[in-house]
Design brief:
three-stranded mixed sheet, nine-stranded mixed sheet, 285 residues, single chain, alpha/beta, 11 helices, Spore Coat Polysaccharide Biosynthesis Protein SpsA, Chain A
């Protein structure tokens, strides 16, 4: 594995940040086949932003690697926000590239996603959280490839994923909340406002770069803000195979009422002030 450190100037919305990248793609034979061989680079870049995720990260990355990655030939990028547990060590077992936050302050998840996207080589970037997995991984990636390689007649620049809790953890409350919120996301995208849950967002790389990526100054609501800006240059779509399962740990700790209220307050603040009410999004581990 090759390690190197360099100064990276990201988009106009992002500061100059120092990152370190661990790269194993240099000698990876799986890059020499299929469409990736024709392109001489991966078609899809999967970016996983993480912070203190040693409890769940292995189970997430195990889903995203192995035969699935051999079949769909995507690169896996883990962007770490300064973890002090075993998160990076676990990531080294699976990732093609590891981006490390080394500044002496807490990183926003927007900065983490931007740093991962900055070293991405694919035409499509799949941002997926460290506690989130596709419900049907083969169907998920097959659909992303189909979407990315088909003529883009409807002008879709990004896909919003439906989010649920995995069946073995799901409660009636989980079912009711996610049914409501997934419908709300579809409605906002249908009317052209742009909306997508940050657990998983799929974006054409050129569109992501055109709008300047995630706003690094927003600590909460950065996912909503990105899709609002993307909706100004194209459509936000949503497809059935894009369903993902998230960990319910935050909902279990705070309850749906409190979290929904925080989401709404931060969303309004982002629209009006371009800044979240929350100074820092608390990590629940």
């Amino acid at each position: 594995m090759i390690y190197y450190t360099y100064e990276l100037a990201t988009s106009e919305l992002s500061p100059t940040v120092k990152i370190q990248t661990s790269e194993r793609r240099v000698e990876s034979p799986r890059r020499r086949k299929g469409l990736s061989a024709v392109l001489d680079r991966p078609l899809i870049s999967v970016v996983v932003p993480v912070y203190q995720e040693e409890k769940l990260l292995r189970s997430t990355l195990e889903v995203l690697t192995g035969s699935l990655r051999e079949k769909f030939d995507y690169e896996l990028i883990v962007s770490d926000g300064g973890s002090t547990d075993r998160t990076v060590a676990i990531a080294e077992e699976f990732a093609d590239k590891i981006v490390l936050h080394e500044l002496d302050r807490r990183q926003t998840i927007a900065e983490g996603r931007n740093a991962g996207a900055a070293v991405a080589e694919g035409d499509i970037i799949v941002f997926i959280n460290g506690d989130t997995i596709p419900a049907d991984p083969p169907a998920f990636f097959a659909d992303v490839i189909q979407w990315s390689t088909q003529p883009n007649r409807d002008g879709t620049v990004a896909l919003a994923c439906a989010v649920r809790v995995a069946p073995h953890e799901r409660t009636i409350g989980d079912r009711m909340f996610h049914a409501f919120f997934n419908s709300y996301v579809r409605l906002l995208n249908f009317v052209g406002l742009g909306m997508g849950r940050g657990e998983c967002q799929i974006v054409r790389t050129w569109a992501f770069r055109m709008v300047g990526g995630y706003n690094p100054a927003i600590s909460a609501g950065e996912d909503f803000d990105l899709f609002r800006r993307l909706a100004r240059i194209g459509r936000i779509g949503q497809r059935a195979p894009g369903l993902v399962y998230e960990s319910p740990r935050r909902f279990r700790k705070y309850g749906y009422a409190r979290i929904l209220a925080e989401w709404c307050i931060n969303a309004v603040s982002v629209m009006i002030r371009k800044k979240a009410v929350s100074d820092e999004w608390e990590a629940v581990r």
